[in-house]
Design brief:
Elements (H helix, E strand, L loop, with lengths): L1 H21 L3 E5 L4 E6 L6 E5 L3 E9 L2 E13 L8 H10 L7 E11 L4 E10 L2 E13 L3 E11 L9 E2 L4 E2 L3 E11 L1
Antiparallel strand pairs: 1-4, 1-12, 2-3, 2-12, 4-5, 5-6, 6-7, 7-8, 8-9, 9-12, 10-11
Length: about 190
C-alpha cells in the first residue's frame, strides 16, 4: 500500500513538474525579419519610411500554443536605420528626429492586457527624438512554431514628441502633423 502511494505521489510530482515546465515564461529575441515603418502625409504626396534593423527581447508565456502572458517587451531601433526612397527626405527626417543627440527610438512595455485569444492591449513608453510618452497600442498576435508574431499600428503626432513637422522647398511643401507607426515583429527562442 505504501509503495503504491509513493509511486502515485512520484507520478503526480513528475506530472506537475512537466506541466510547470511547459508553461514557464521564456525569453524571446526579436528576429531580423521584423519590420518597422512610419507613414504620413504632405502637401505634395503621402510618404513612408521603413526599417528592418530593430533589436529587442520579450519575456512571454506560451502554453498549449496560446500566448498567456507578456511579462516584458523592449525594442530599440537605430533612428537613422529608418529610410525612405529619397536621401533628401531621410536627411530632413533625421534632423526632425534629432539623431545627432538621440541615436535610438525605443519602446518599453509597462503592462499587457489580453483582449481575446489573438488581441492584446499593450501600454508602454515610446521614446522618440529624446521625448518619452506612455501610449496604448492594440496588437494582433500569432503563436508560431518558434515563438510569436506581433503586428500593430499606433497613431502619434510630431508635437507629442517635441518635434516640428518638417517642411521643404522654403516651406512650400509641408508635412502633416499625424504619423502612423506600423510594426510586424517576430520573437524567436
Amino acid at each position: 500500500m505504501k509503495t503504491t502511494r509513493i509511486k502515485f505521489l512520484a507520478l503526480v510530482i513528475s506530472f506537475l513538474g512537466i506541466t510547470t515546465l511547459a508553461t514557464a515564461q521564456k525569453s524571446y529575441t526579436l528576429d531580423s525579419k521584423s519590420t518597422f515603418s512610419v507613414a504620413g502625409t504632405s502637401t505634395l504626396h503621402d510618404w513612408e519610411m521603413k526599417s528592418a534593423s530593430g533589436t529587442g527581447t520579450a519575456n512571454l508565456t506560451i502554453a498549449n500554443s496560446k500566448l498567456t502572458e507578456i511579462e516584458s517587451l523592449s525594442i530599440t531601433l537605430a533612428a537613422e536605420s529608418v529610410k525612405s526612397e529619397k536621401k533628401s527626405m531621410d536627411k530632413v527626417a533625421y534632423e526632425t528626429l534629432k539623431t545627432d543627440k538621440n541615436k535610438n527610438i525605443k519602446y518599453v512595455l509597462k503592462s499587457a492586457e489580453k483582449v481575446n485569444e489573438t488581441t492584446w492591449e499593450l501600454t508602454g513608453t515610446y521614446t522618440i527624438a529624446g521625448v518619452s510618452k506612455l501610449l496604448k497600442t492594440t496588437v494582433k498576435t500569432t503563436v508560431t512554431q518558434n515563438g510569436l508574431n506581433m503586428q500593430g499600428t499606433n497613431k502619434i503626432t510630431f508635437s507629442e514628441f517635441g518635434m516640428k513637422s518638417p517642411t521643404a522647398m522654403l516651406g512650400t511643401i509641408k508635412t502633416g502633423q499625424d504619423l502612423t507607426l506600423k510594426f510586424n515583429l517576430t520573437f524567436n527562442l
